[in-house]
């Protein structure tokens, strides 16, 4: 069996090498062609909404506060026309300061709605699929759709999440969890890895292992797979009807595991070069350390080609950011507002500190991608990082005003360096997050449908087809 594996690694790896060779071919395109589409996406999906009132650049009218200057909360923006302004010449809000170096590749999008798939504390799967499915996956999510089209490595999409429940207590999860945000199709949610240490071993472990250990593992896996597959085929002959169909799915799972291992072997040299070096932070249960580890792993996964789409779920409602001097949970902060939270901060200030921590991780990942040449630019120039929440409102209910931060070059397909604020919910010119996801598909060179997700019956009189024209180049 070892000899067979050696033959595979030396001369019989055409199938396994195909994704890697296609990746190299894309990177070697002639100047002027390498920016044709966005090649990779990162979705960072936080809990409990994003405060929209402190996303408005200085010098622009803030439609998310009252005439007296009070935060409007879950209420949609005040009446007014579409705002389309360049970020150049406007100071970024304080919580976006870490992104200053990328202001020409940053776009803030506000006032997109998702009212048709509201939940209590979260829209759940609806946030990325645009269907009313808080807890049950009934449609594919945008990250999985993009991953299936773009990723040429072992993982169509890879997810990492802090816990998976909505109002959990106790210790952080140390295994797979289901954060209820991503799904390949109806009834097929994506398991996210909660433990940074286990994510490292799953993504990079085999490739950074000593050669003799890797060969032993490949040989063992090959023997086991061959045995199980052969045994399964004998059993299949005894089955009929539905039982046979279910058993085919069982067999396919073995083949998928074999293909995954083959693709990892094809990328092993690149993985050895760019794999992170896990330290003590990978075993820490502090949310800050866990989030830092997630972003490090996400960047390395993209750089090595293990996947082209990563989704990170940095927190849930039960998380407490004590490292930031915040003793209240994310859930409690959503109720505090202008009331005192902890360590001299009120609820709004504490929420801004949490968002800034996430954006520090986003900026660090962007810096790493920007340091890797690709075509006439860098990996960041062909990447789009999306910072958003699983809920459009600040906390309870209200999905009429969903903010997004987009960071990256977007391959020149999207207008970056902009502040885009759409008209109020139900007003002429208003658009939805489904239109934003259609923009992502277009930017990735994917044939997109006329609409995405479940239509909102309250918006029947508005034109909600196609991508966001104001975002597209």
Provide tags for this entry.
single chain; about 475 residues; alpha/beta; Alkaline Phosphatase, subunit A; 12 helices; 16 strands; globular; disordered N terminus
What low-confidence regions span 5 or more consecutive residues with pLDDT below 50?
A: 1-34
Question: Roughly what fraction of the amino acids lie in strands?
Answer: 5-15%
Number of strands: 16
For the record, the CATH architecture stands as 3-Layer(aba) Sandwich
Biggest sheet overview: 8 strands, mixed
> For the record, what CATH class applies?
Alpha Beta
Compute the separation of the termini in Å.
54 Å
Count of helical stretches: 12
What class do helices, strands and sheet pairing give? alpha/beta
Shape: globular
Helix fraction by DSSP (H/I, runs of at least 4)? 25-40%
Strand order of the largest sheet: 2-16-3-15-14-1-9-4
**The CATH topology is what?**
Alkaline Phosphatase, subunit A
Report the CATH superfamily.
Alkaline Phosphatase, subunit A
How many domain regions?
1
Question: What string gives the helices and strands in order?
Answer: HHEEEHHEEEEEHHHHHEHEEHEEEEEH
Overall pLDDT score: 84
- Rg, rounded, reads 23 Å
